[in-house]
Design brief:
By secondary structure, the protein is of the alpha/beta class. The protein is built from 6 helices and 17 strands. Helices cover 23% and strands 29% of the residues. The protein binds flavin-adenine dinucleotide.
């Protein structure tokens, strides 16, 4: 029986873990990866005290900080979180863990296109993180599905490596911020196509083309890879705590100081992008991780 289990190791989870280690409570941090969405950012310019870093560099700083406290992240996926009496039960594929309290910090994950070939060619030309995988497409032709901020950032980053980049947006107009759209529209390596739908991803061992539909006109376009940048979904389906219509965990506030980041289930706390807070940012997630840790200590002490 642990005092606390922290689920997720993005900025929220890693911050909660540092606070837990400093309090010397018996805790576990479990996550599918370390760094979370932070590692997908090519440039973080708004984390105070660090000026400009890549997301991976900032994540490494969080990890170095965790090392000071000898914190090891257990690499497992949580499949189910439930409450049996006063005990929180966390199930992964391999193990079952029990604790007095849990902090959920599972953030968001990319939405899928849901077209044939997407799962088959995952990691073989189908990608969800331009920052991580753009260098693999040096001198190649790639498509990006999604013309919002993520898609715009992705094409600009890919254009540093690829020979040609298609930006494909299903709506008639690009979304995202104007300054990003302006950068995209003047980049000679980028071809923007709006009102187009990706219908299938084709290949042999690796992606070699995509089938598209533009207003009924079907076409097969030769590409070496495709990046799916159509938004994010909340990663909290493993728990039944109360959520809003976007699947984000609803946070409640207690009556006393530190009695924050409460979910609808006593003993289960939540922080960061998986919750209904409006600020989906690294600094906000880290702050929420701190608040949730402090609130969980109060709860554990009272137990
Ligand atoms: C492309 C991009 C660029 C961005 N740029 C910036 C920026 O410049 N500045 C800024 O402030 N913010 C930026 N953001 C937003 C910022 O990255 C997020 O707000 C922040 O990472 C949220 O932190 P989090 O800890 O709540 O969740 P996440 O970072 O999403 O971390 C969630 C963690 O939970 C783990 N996890 C999920 N499900 C499970 C499960 N079932 N079992 C075990 N582990 C699980 C994941 O593996 C991950 O480690 C950017 C986001 C994106 C996508």
């Amino acid at each position: 029986m642990y005092d606390l289990i922290i689920i997720g190791a993005g900025p929220a989870g890693m911050t909660a873990a540092i606070y837990a280690a400093r309090r010397k409570i018996d805790f576990l941090i479990i996550s599918m990866d370390v760094g979370g969405q932070m590692t997908w950012s090519s440039e973080v310019k708004n984390y105070p005290g660090t000026n400009t870093l890549t997301g991976i560099e900032l994540s490494n700083k969080f990890q170095e900080h965790m090392k000071e406290y000898k914190i090891n992240v257990k690499s497992e996926e949580i499949l189910k979180l439930s409450k049996k009496g006063k005990t929180c039960v966390v199930k992964t594929k391999q193990n079952k863990y029990e604790s007095k309290a849990v902090i959920i910090t599972t953030g968001k994950k990319p939405k899928k296109l849901g077209v044939p070939g997407e799962d088959k060619y995952l990691g073989k030309g189908v990608n969800y993180c331009a920052t991580c995988d753009a260098p693999l497409f040096k001198g190649k032709i790639v498509a990006v599905a999604g013309g919002g901020n993520s898609g715009l950032e992705a094409v600009l980053f890919l254009a540093k490596y690829a020979k040609k980049v298609y930006l494909m947006e299903v709506n008639e107009k690009l979304g995202g911020e104007a300054y990003l759209r302006d950068k995209v529209l003047v980049d000679k390596k980028i071809t923007v196509i709006t009102g187009i739908k990706v219908e299938e991803i084709l290949g042999k061992d690796f992606v070699n083309a995509i089938k598209t539909d533009k207003g009924g006109k079907k076409e097969t376009i030769k590409v070496d890879g495709i990046f799916v940048e159509i938004g994010l979904i909340t990663e909290a389906s493993f728990t039944d705590v109360e959520k809003n219509k976007w699947g984000e965990i609803k946070l409640f506030r207690g009556t006393k100081t530190h009695n924050e980041n409460l979910t609808s289930v006593p003993g289960i706390f939540a922080a960061g992008d998986c919750t209904d807070i409006p600020a989906k940012q690294i600094i906000a997630a880290a702050g929420e991780g701190c608040k949730a840790a402090l609130a969980s200590f109060d709860y554990i002490l009272k137990k």
